[in-house]
Design a protein that fits this description.
single chain; mainly alpha; Growth Hormone, Chain: A; 17 helices; globular
Length: about 425
């Protein structure tokens, strides 16, 4: 296998496995709640699990700062390797934690601890994959290689939802709640070690190797905050769109079951949603190498604003089924999802690129991605059932405004940015 093909396979597979591990918690929220936050403890509802889910996003931002600092100072490869080690070990830790009935309040504390480690790992992994792959690719292929990674991340959601659907089908609800929920976590940890082995043969990126060592910032994130404020604002708004959409998709099975009282085809629904999103993201990513990133960002934003609130309204009134109601969001977000990573890479110079992408990506997913399930739960519980449509539209409105004075760098060499 030649270097280019091996790089694409490794970065895509690694992204898939990392997000599979990270998103299992939300798909197994009911079983996690029963085992770590039982009713008898006084903590018995879904909100503590959503808070632990959110804690992973908080750690994701801190982990991203740590990993990206080292990556911009000392090279991309060693930090790209270490992130997978941390994810594999922390996911195995979750699989092995005894429940609340066995060790009491130590159980949820250990769950929180390992979730924080998962978040820290993902904070370095996703930006590291994107920067690593981008700096190895030609300028007319950046959309393709980053699109593969984004599709890989989305495919991680597909694997996670498929794994959870499988264990429910094979073992049944009672066994899953008792013990079988641990199987997907254990499997993810083992597969992660295979990904680590695949990464071992990769070398440092040529863009980083050829960069001027004397121009590397002592503390890259300080340089970002001083010199690249407008780029940071654009990058955060850009990453906020997929962060919100993915969290809305995570929330939809509960929304269907608890608020519109539809049959709980929870896991197959998520499987279909994320399969569509992954496919569309890759198609639009490849297209962006020909027509640019900004047209897709703008068209996607306009489509979300114009159609998604209405789709949720039609879902609530039984006019559309869940797949048809979510289709406008999936198509529109596919446009943004396909180009947002490449666009963030093109915002920053080599000496601050890893830090810039990590800062924007992780801050957006921390604030918008992590908090969205809790926000939607609270709003829907207080009667705001249109909120799964209105919230993505609001975020897209901000992104549309910021894109008006944005220079598209899709044809520029990264060494010249």
């Amino acid at each position: 296998m030649n270097l280019t093909l091996r790089l694409r396979v490794v970065t895509t597979l690694s992204a898939t496995l990392e997000f599979y591990d990270f998103t299992l918690l939300i798909f197994l929220a009911n079983a996690i709640s029963l085992n770590f936050f039982p009713v008898a403890s006084g903590m018995g509802n879904i909100m503590p699990v959503l808070m632990v889910f959110f804690a992973g996003y908080l750690a994701r931002f801190i982990g991203g700062l740590i990993y990206s600092h080292g990556g911009d100072k000392h090279g991309r490869k060693p930090y790209y390797m270490n992130s997978m080690i941390l994810m594999s070990l922390s996911t195995l830790g979750i699989a092995l934690i005894p429940g609340h009935d066995t060790i009491g309040y130590i159980a949820p504390l250990l769950l929180l601890f390992f979730r924080l480690l998962q978040g820290a790992s993902l904070g370095g992994e996703v930006p590291g994959s994107v920067v690593y792959a981008s700096e190895y690719s030609r300028e007319n292929k950046r959309g393709l290689v980053t699109g593969l990674i984004v599709s890989g991340l989305t495919f991680g959601n597909i694997l996670a939802s498929g794994a959870v659907w499988f264990i429910h089908t094979w073992f049944g609800e009672q066994a899953v709640n008792a013990w079988a929920w641990r199987i997907p976590f254990a499997l993810g940890s083992v597969i992660g070690l295979i990904s680590l082995w695949l990464r071992h043969s990769l070398a440092e990126t040529p863009v980083f190797e050829s960069s001027d060592h004397s121009r590397r910032e002592t503390i890259p994130v300080i340089s970002l905050l001083k010199n690249y404020r407008s780029q940071l604002l654009r990058g955060v708004s850009l990453a906020a769109a997929p962060a919100v959409t993915i969290s809305v998709l995570f929330f939809m099975p509960r929304f269907q079951q608890e608020y519109i009282h539809q049959p709980p085809s929870r896991f197959m629904g998520s499987f279909v949603f994320f399969t569509i999103l992954a496919s569309l993201s890759f198609i639009f990513a490849v297209l962006s190498d020909r027509i640019g990133r900004l047209p897709l960002i703008r068209y996607g934003s306009i489509m979300i604003i114009a159609t998604v609130p209405a789709s949720i309204f039609f879902l609530l009134h039984g006019i559309l089924n869940p797949v048809m109601a979510m289709l406008p969001l999936l198509i529109a977000q596919g446009m943004i999802n396909g180009v947002y990573e490449a666009s963030m890479v093109e915002l920053f110079p080599t000496g601050a690129r890893y830090s810039g992408v990590a800062f924007c990506h992780n801050l957006a997913f921390c604030i918008f991605g992590g908090a969205t399930p809790m926000l939607l739960e609270w709003l829907c519980n207080h009667g705001w059932l249109l909120s799964p449509g209105l919230w993505p539209a609001m975020v897209s409105f901000v992104l549309m405004g910021l894109s008006l004075h944005w220079k598209d760098r899709y044809q520029d060499k990264l060494t010249e940015i």
